């Protein structure tokens, strides 16, 4: 405690109109840290409104941390992270970046392929891209799931209306789907296994070289059909549900199959909301 | 695609069966429609509100096309098998599909027990329509019922003044309105006058949107071709283009709406390929729509379907 006349506090108070007396100043300075006086011996800190600034700083710090450290750090902090919409560690966001990267790789591959005559397999990016063959198992799983759901067996077939109402709340991830009709004509004929369904889009994995062009039989060998480089690559496609009609089928045994189609315009609902939603008939103007 | 959705079935209830004469006139009507380049036809059964339903679901629909001994439809499955001859007497020139339509005329909705059983008709009739005879019935049909069409009696006074708000709210929902021109061709001057006032008010209140024009002909002389009708309706103040649409596109939507009610669950997931929805041949052959064997038919054709081909090819690749 410094009560000399040179101290900053003394000089400041001497300018103040309340402290016109020298004694008053000394008294005030003496009693400022006392326990009994009018002053309190602690500081009250209230949160200011500039919350955003501080959280941004925190974000910057946390980005610099490695993933291992984040996992090992307090669980309480982790909870906060999960609530953050833009956190890269959220599975949703991780999935988003994964698909973005994959699309980017496909784009690069597409560029490279269009310049050369080399096969797709010779490029490095090919190994990192999603391939149709890996998802066939999922499709088989889905088939058995749908058979269970509709209670289909070799001899017995379900009632049409009951089956359709069950299908409307069924999960389509894993189904093999084609675009039958679409306002974006480039999408028509694309077929693949669904890996994700969002509110407005299906994300599907398409096979390589498999398009309608395979079904064309031209007797003259020199006129063979050429695939575009995009078709040669296959991989992920994002197809919007709006103004499109999708077809999918359920094989019952080796010879028989049931075909269904989904009207995309009426399907613009998140898949988890679809289970409980009550649907209504609408105007059919947008279906023709 | 040129449609006539109102070819009346001669009998109005379940007990009496149509006589041979009546069937012959119906056959003549259908054949003349074929001659006039119509492609899609609906045969209309009109029943009063207090009719009791038949117990058996198959008997709910008395319309039996086999009685008529009609020629084969154009481009039908059977056609490809033997005597494929589009010009001969074996098949129609133009008609591709014949649908079945039900019209319930309602005066007092609370007395009508059929309305609660509308779902039973879904699987039997392709198009379901209502003929309101009072304002109450019209309001109910627009707001609550799941139907495709509303038709008025054109030879009588309309049940109420048609308000634009009510009519257009129905059209926005997907329910269309019908103008049948047969009452114009009658001898009675009063009926003719009624037709003009009624259609004028219908066109005014709907702003010439969502209307379909059909014949409702009781004899083949009352049928007219597309251009005759357009001339007539232009007289009533409708646009040339709108008039053509109301004979082609809008009836198509009515049929699609009706078919989707049976073939899909709330227009979300449909059975069969989407392009096949208007196709009712298999059901006609089986004459039993409730049965689930509708699910799979001519497997060989489906087996070659594109979807399966791709999948099989991929699986083979994997094995190699």
TrEMBL record, chain A:
Q: Which domain of life is it from?
A: Eukaryota
Residue ranges of the region described as Disordered: 45-65
Question: Which InterPro entries is this protein grouped with?
Answer: RNase_P/MRP_Rpp29-subunit, RNase_P/MRP_Rpp29_sf, Rof/RNase_P-like, Rpp29/RNP1
Query: What Pfam families does the database record attribute to this sequence?
Result: RNase_P-MRP_p29
Q: Name one GO biological process term.
A: tRNA 5'-leader removal
| Organism this protein belongs to | Pachysolen tannophilus NRRL Y-2460
**Keyword Nucleus set for record:** yes
Q: Where does this protein reside within or beyond the cell?
A: Nucleus
Q: Name one GO cellular component term.
A: ribonuclease MRP complex
**SMART domains, alphabetically?**
POP4
Which keywords has UniProt assigned to this entry? Nucleus, tRNA processing
Q: Which SUPFAM superfamilies match?
A: Rof/RNase P subunit-like
**Family of the protein in this entry:** Belongs to the eukaryotic/archaeal RNase P protein component 1 family.
What Gene Ontology terms describe what this protein does at the molecular function level? ribonuclease P RNA binding
- Entry keyword Membrane: no
Coarsely, its chief localization is: nucleus
Q: What is this protein called?
A: Ribonuclease P protein subunit
From TrEMBL, chain B:
Family, per entry:
Belongs to the eukaryotic/archaeal RNase P protein component 3 family.
The UniProt keyword set, sorted, is: tRNA processing
Q: Which Pfam families match?
A: RNase_P_p30
UniProt organism field = Pachysolen tannophilus NRRL Y-2460
GO biological process terms, semicolon-separated: intronic box C/D snoRNA processing; maturation of 5.8S rRNA; nuclear-transcribed mRNA catabolic process, RNase MRP-dependent; tRNA 5'-leader removal
- Name a GO molecular-function annotation: ribonuclease MRP activity
Q: Could you tell me what this protein is called?
A: Uncharacterized protein
Alphabetized Gene3D superfamilies for the sequence: Metal-dependent hydrolases
Q: Which InterPro entries does the annotation name?
A: Pol/histidinol_Pase-like, RNase_P_p30
**A cellular-component GO term for this protein:** ribonuclease MRP complex
